Amino acid sequence: MQHRIIKQVPRMLFGAGALGRLNELLPAKNGAKDWYLYVVDEVHRTTGLLDRLDLKPEDKLYTISTAKEPTTVQVDELRDLVLKENENRPAAVISLGGGSTMDVGKATAVMLNNEGSSAQYQGWDLVPNPAVFKVGIPTLAGTGAEASRTAVLTGPEKKFGINSDHSMFDAIVLDPELSGTVPAEQRFYTAMDCYIHCVESLRGTMINEIAAAYASKALEMCQTVFLSKGEEDKLMVASYMGGLSIVNSEVGICHALSYGLSLILGYRHGIANCIAFNVLEEYYDEHVVEMREMMKREGVTLPTNVCAGLKPEELEAMVDMTLRMERPLTNALGENYKDILTKEKIRELYANM
Ligand SMILES: [Fe+2]
Fold it and tell me: Chain-centre distance of CA 230, in angstroms?
């Protein structure tokens, strides 16, 4: 296999209270017309987090709904609104929220400098122009969006990432104090996204020493947090390292199945992964058992029979979505994955969820 050239986030601030030093990461404003765009999950209207931002009069804050997975339409509309309501482009885009908000922030920063619809850029290295300078500030740990080049969006026909050197953050702030505002179930499902990144990375054929180093440490941190009660800063570091692990390798069968669940049933990424992972004991054995133990300790119960009411064409769309995930499936099962994970097998796995 040919090795990929890996890009990483060049600047990072880590630690409790790091948000207070955000200004040190931002590009200087040139003149009175320069401003920063804050893209914030609307839940933070009531969490008190907005009061901690040092917004200047010229800066603008747009809140976004994350009730559903981010879409190309949502990004295009936000970009159009920002361009309509402001004379010039922002000097920086700052995203504050979970994976969805960070993905919308990344994609919006890309779309402010690129023509057309974000749906045109879903894929590998399709973005021609550099994005506006962008900063990611996770308030929820697990997705790894802060570490990766990917901005995952649901488009008209597929859920797929804008995956480009231009869609990676220029700086991130990892402040464990920010993750205390999240409901327990959401915290758990998002953390399991990280856990699953690590398992899929370690069990995959595209694993290498760098990815394995990140993944094994991040996995251990998730285990500490959920099996012997670790601190919140462990989860934030695990999320980042789990993200770095998949940047250097690839996800696997669970993510391929979960994309189908999100596309058709609208499940958020974290819970979709947990639903899918729960039926993958034959591939990820002791880790599936371990996730169930973590769920028990956290008092989390997964929905069951989630595919029961599906129309046949909806199920087929989910199967097709799964099979589109060529790299993750190749990583998990090798080049001839279609012989192993047949359409029939995928239908069977969905039926068990
Ligand atoms: Fe994920």
Answer: 23
For residue range 63-114, list pLDDT tens digits in order: 999 888 899 999 999 999 999 999 999 999 999 999 999 999 999 999 999 9
**Same domain, yes or no: 149 and 202:** no
Q: Clarify whether residues 176 and 48 are in a common domain.
A: yes
Range of the domain at 117: 11-181
In a domain, 1, yes or no: no
Ligand 1 centroid to 194 CA: how many Å? 7
Distance 255 CA to ligand 1 centre (A): 6
Q: How many angstroms separate the alpha carbon of residue 325 from the centre of ligand 1?
A: 13
Ligand 1 centroid – CA 348 distance (Å): 22
Query: How remote is the CA of residue 143 from the centroid of ligand 1, in Å?
Result: 5
One domain, residues 196 and 162: no
Q: Which of 151, 165, 141 is nearest to 104 (CA)?
A: 151
Distance between Cα 305 and ligand 1 center (Å): 22
Mean pLDDT over all residues of the chain?
Answer: 94
200 Cα to the center of ligand 1, angstroms:
10
* Domain boundary, last residue among 120, 152, 181: 181
How far is the centre of ligand 1, averaged over its atoms, from the C-alpha of 273 (Å)?
Answer: 7
pLDDT category at 1 given cuts 50, 70, 90 is low
Long-range contacts at 18-22 (CB < 8 A, ≥ 24 apart): 18/173, 18/174, 18/175, 19/52, 19/53, 19/137, 19/173, 19/175, 19/177, 19/178, 20/52, 21/173, 22/53, 22/54, 22/94, 22/135, 22/137, 22/173
Q: How far is the CA of 310 from the centre of ligand 1 (A)?
A: 24
Q: Which of 127, 158, 181 is the last residue of a domain?
A: 181
